[in-house]
Design brief:
Elements (H helix, E strand, L loop, with lengths): L2 E14 L2 E13 L5 E5 L8 H5 L1 E5 L4 E5 L1 E7 L14 H14 L4 H17 L2 E7 L4 H14 L2 E5 L1 E2 L12 H17 L5 E3 L2 E2 L7 H14 L3 E5 L3 H10 L5 H7 L7 E5 L5 H10 L2 E4 L1 H6 L7 H6 L3 E4 L11 H18 L9 H15 L17 E5 L21 H11 L5 E6 L2 E2 L2
Parallel strand pairs: 1-4, 6-7, 7-8, 8-10, 9-11, 12-13, 13-14, 14-15
Antiparallel strand pairs: 1-2, 2-3, 5-16, 16-17, 17-18
Helix pairs in contact: 3-4, 4-5, 5-6, 12-13
The structure holds zinc ion (ZN).
Zinc ion binds next to strand 6.
């Protein structure tokens, strides 16, 4: 067995929605063979098994460093990295036609796919995302390639081959049977890797581009293989109207439910314009929501009432939704989550408390883990969980190009204040090391 022992370690993580715990000067023992955090204690003498110590690599953390859990991005489109930061002048349905479908159609070319996917995966990893839930494109081979690239990176990856058999240009649409066959082949491919940190996801793009037959059959595949489902729900008012025209159903949420796609493994991106009965249905089925505020602002979709959904007890994680969202950084999404909730209070509902920093951080870690069914494995530093962690160095938080002259903030601020500064002012340059399941991957 090989071990990691971190000494003088400051740990910052969520215990629950309202409780950000800061532990100072701890010793952390990680088993690298299992990836498990075996012990968090005050002093190395408390590790009774001498063989752990004999087989350990030691890391002495500096006073300017802390460990936090790896971030979880619960909704993102890997191919759209190609046009991230451009084309944000249109609302959803027009944006899909003008920018998204033309870009995604290019992934039939595996050389192009390789080039984009390698950069896409790296861009998220460098921002501290250790677990990601990706949409690929409709192309089987390119989506298999995406899984290979994620596997090579060492990240935890949930990946879906996109399914869509109507209401898109004929040059970017599948035949229903082909979509189903490719989905089954994709699932077999991912499962054959027998890699516990990679998972296939059944991925109907959204109801308007999926026939009833396609959705019903995808639900059967999800059920028979016990595979998660990801899709979009109630992102844009015109989309909601369109769904009501296409399906004679009580609500958009009911469309997914009547097609068997709503269960406790389902990740629903956006969920902005939901009625109360839809929230009840999502709760009843145990499905969860990926909140993507950066994208929602960029595509003029609206503001998700996060406080209301939290009060309802719904599972919520955060998503970058690249490229509707212009950044691969979940840290940025934490800021946006807080910011849009303040706007919601100012302009929509004055009695609704905005989301606080501790709560948004919880959503970016434990909330995301719950959404993906990983709450027993990751999300914080409980003993027995797997060690997915970021080593943050905050010695150069504000003047990033002036390392030598920047005063050490730890002399003047509490660790809690330093953490807040990192969330609002820090970026990938402050992320010095990244660990997944006990292994250093960056
Ligand atoms: Zn999306």
């Amino acid at each position: 067995m090989s071990y990691l022992i971190f000494q003088n370690a400051n740990l910052i993580h969520s215990v629950d929605l309202n409780n950000l715990q800061i532990l100072e000067n701890k010793t952390v023992l990680v088993n690298q063979d299992t990836g498990i955090i075996e012990k968090i204690c005050n002093h190395i003498d408390e590790i009774s098994d001498q063989s752990c110590i004999n087989n350990a690599k030691f890391y002495q953390l500096k006073s300017t460093q802390f460990l936090m859990p790896g971030l979880v991005d619960t909704h993102c489109h890997a191919p759209q990295f190609f046009f991230t930061g451009t084309g944000l002048d249109l609302p959803l349905l027009e944006w899909l036609d003008k920018y998204t479908f033309p870009c995604e159609s290019k992934f039939s070319d595996l050389n192009f796919a390789k080039k984009v996917y390698e950069k896409s995966v790296k861009s998220h990893l460098y921002c501290g995302t250790t677990t990601i839930c990706f949409f690929g494109t409709i192309h089987l081979e390119a989506t298999k390639l995406l899984v290979d690239i994620i596997e090579k990176s060492g990240m935890r990856g949930y990946v879906g081959k996109v399914c869509m058999d109507r209401n898109s240009p004929d040059w970017y649409r599948e035949e229903t049977q082909k979509s189903l066959e490719d989905t089954k082949n994709f699932i077999d491919y991912v499962l054959s890797k027998q890699n516990p940190i990679l998972k296939p996801v059944v991925t109907p793009r959204f109801a308007p581009t999926c026939s009833s037959q396609l959705m019903l059959s995808l639900a059967e595949i999800s059920e028979s293989h016990n595979i998660p489902v990801q899709t979009h729900l109630s992102e844009n008012v015109n989309e909601v109207k369109w769904v009501k025209e296409l399906f004679s159903s009580e609500s958009y949420t009911a469309v997914y439910d009547t097609h068997g796609l709503l269960n406790d493994r389902t990740v629903l991106a956006h969920c902005i314009h939901l009625e109360d009965d839809e929230l009840d249905l999502i709760k009843k089925r145990g499905a969860g929501i990926s909140h993507c505020p950066t994208s929602n602002t960029s595509l003029q979709s609206g503001i998700m009432p996060t406080r209301k959904y939290l009060n309802k007890g719904l599972k919520i994680g955060l998503g970058t939704d690249v490229a509707g969202g212009f950044t691969p950084s979940i840290i940025h999404v934490i800021r946006e989550c807080i910011g849009v909730s303040k706007l919601y209070r100012s302009f929509v509902k004055s009695d609704e408390e905005p989301i606080g920093l501790s709560e948004a951080f919880y959503l970016a870690t434990i909330g995301g883990a719950q959404l993906l069914g990983l709450e027993e494995k990751i999300g914080n530093f409980s003993e027995g969980k797997e060690f997915d962690a970021l080593l943050i160095d905050f010695s150069n938080i504000i003047h990033k190009n002036d390392d030598h002259h920047e005063p050490n903030f730890s002399d003047d601020h509490s660790l809690r204040e330093i953490f807040e500064k990192f969330i609002y002012l820090g970026d990938d340059r402050n992320i010095k090391e990244i660990y997944v399941k006990g292994l250093r991957i960056l």
